[in-house]
Specification:
- With about 300 residues, this protein is of the alpha+beta class.
- Helices cover about 25% and strands about 25% of the residues.
- It is built from six helices and 16 strands.
- It has two domains: about 120 residues, Aminotransferase class 4, branched-chain amino acid transferase, N-terminal domain (D-amino Acid Aminotransferase, Chain A, domain 1), CATH 3.30.470.10; about 150 residues, D-amino Acid Aminotransferase, Chain A, domain 2 (Alpha-Beta Barrel).
- A hairpin with a 5-residue loop joins β9 and β10.
- The strands form two sheets. Strands 8, 9, 10, 11, 12, 13, 14, 15 and 16 form a nine-stranded mixed β-sheet that branches. Strands 1, 2, 3, 4, 5, 6 and 7 form a seven-stranded antiparallel β-sheet that branches.
- The radius of gyration is 19 Å and the shape is globular.
- Bound molecules: 4'-deoxy-4'-aminopyridoxal-5'-phosphate (PMP).
Length: about 300
């Protein structure tokens, strides 16, 4: 359940009961997947409730809309304030936050006259759980960047993600790992990918992936900890002799990968660079200090 009879959401300038909220069935977003959304988290930190990277997420929402021609006239600071109020009204400190920009009724394939925004909040554990993940290489590729704006978080793009995750589950895996149209590793259906080899991390370059805010946070953490990160094209065969790997995303946070296509990684997760990044990330979202010396 994402809401109860008491849950409040934000809809077009007003706080209303989620149970009383409704939408127009002729919305272009429902018919064509033409809308944009975000996935954000708030944490109960030692300095009170903090929305992690709120500015970055709302700016990405703006970028997503603008890049596909959906008008976006909202003020980022105002959206952040509204989100804090919404958390407060729902008495939530640790929460997942889902803003969605959706379009007015329009059955034509043209930009809408009007857009709407809703923000919902709910309690949500780690999206992919706490256990190490068993992944499979997906038969579904990430979309061609000449067909869609892959760096935008557009509702319709998630059909590709649903196909990949569903296929992985049917095959008995926890999650999928998807390749791009050229056959390089791209990302998971809702998280970015890092691989460890000989004390260095490698992650797919931008171009065929969603530029994850967590991915960038991990890169920044690595700079602070003196861990080298190579952003480059990674071939799936490189999984064979990699030391370890992990996924990262707002919903999933940092989560280790046990195996891909049932082939386990050489290093134990607790010995990997990933576990250090996981700790550092946890400290950062909770506003705690973290220090680690890599020997
Ligand atoms: N890739 C995809 C396809 C995603 O949906 C997400 C989740 N937004 C990510 C990566 C991770 O992005 P972020 O770290 O900004 O949550």
């Amino acid at each position: 359940m994402y809401y109860t009879k008491n849950t409040v959401l934000y809809l077009n300038g007003k706080f209303i009961k989620a149970a009383d909220a409704n939408t127009d069935l002729y919305s272009q977003t429902l018919h064509y997947g033409y809308g944009a959304f975000e996935g954000i988290r708030a944490y109960n930190t030692t300095h009170g409730t903090k929305i992690f990277k709120a500015y970055e997420h709302y700016e990405r929402l703006r970028h997503s809309c603008v890049s596909v021609g959906i008008p976006f006239d909202y003020d980022t600071e105002e959206l952040i304030q509204v989100t804090y109020q919404l958390l407060d009204k729902n008495k939530l400190k640790d929460a997942y936050i889902r803003p969605l920009v959706y379009c007015s009724p329009n059955m034509s394939l043209t930009a809408p006259k009007e857009v709407f925004i809703m923000i919902a909040v709910w309690e949500w554990g780690k999206y992919l759980g706490d256990n190490l993940l068993k992944l499979c290489l997906s038969s579904y590729q990430r979309p061609n960047p000449n067909s869609v704006k892959v760096d935008a978080k557009i509702t319709g793009h998630y059909v590709n993600s649903i196909l990949a995750t569903s296929e992985a589950k049917v095959r008995g895996y926890d999650e999928a790992l998807m390749l791009d149209m050229h056959g390089y590793i791209a990302e998971a259906p809702g998280a970015n990918f890092f691989l460890e080899k000989d004390g260095v991390l490698h992650t797919p370059i931008l171009g065929h992936i969603l530029p994850g805010i967590t991915r960038q946070t991990v890169i920044n953490i690595c700079k602070e900890l003196d861990i080298t990160v190579n952003e480059r094209n990674i071939r799936p065969e490189e999984l064979q002799d990699a030391d370890s790997a992990f996924l990262c995303g707002t919903a999933a946070e940092v989560i280790g990968i046990e195996s891909v296509d049932a082939k386990p990684f050489a290093k134990e997760w607790k010995e990997s660079l990933g576990v250090i990044i996981q700790e550092a990330y946890k400290a950062q979202v909770l506003d705690k200090t973290f220090s680690h010396v890599i020997i």
